[in-house]
What does this fold into?
Amino acid sequence: MATSQEGSTNNTQEENNIKDLGGKAAIEKLRELAEKAESCFFCTNIKTGIPLSVRPMAIQQVDDEGNIWFMSMKDSHKNDEISTDPFTHLLFQAGAHSGFVNIYGISEISRDQAKIDELWSPFIKTWFQGGKDDPNITLIKVIPSEGYYWDTKHGTAVAFLKMAASVITGKTMDDSVEGTLEVD
It folds into this structure.
């Protein structure tokens, strides 16, 4: 049975809103949206837990390879969960109406003091009272395996103007863009 899409966005849309990104472009989009978001929902127990565990986490860095870095206490539940199930799901929201990212990846826990020193800022002491030399600080590196993003093509101001024009003209003038992120 065929379904009608008469009047749907798919039939009135004049612009192509799918833009899959790979390599450096994917890493730059991920970095841009992660920096705007500053934090994400960090989900563990993906394969082994019911329900999965979800907590907000501050993003420390998206490196040049597209890995996403976090700091965590050695004895935290998330570190325990990662040690038995390294599959991780990250959900970012950079703004109220744009800049959404969905990343699946594999997490690794390390105690690389040089990387801790690189990522350290005085603000982090809120969670790590012992300072950057505290032996209980660990790093979590999430290596993305697949991802998807939703954003605007030209920024929120242009997106708002296009939405307003759409209301007036009755034509879809969506400024959204979405696609896969292939960082490897």
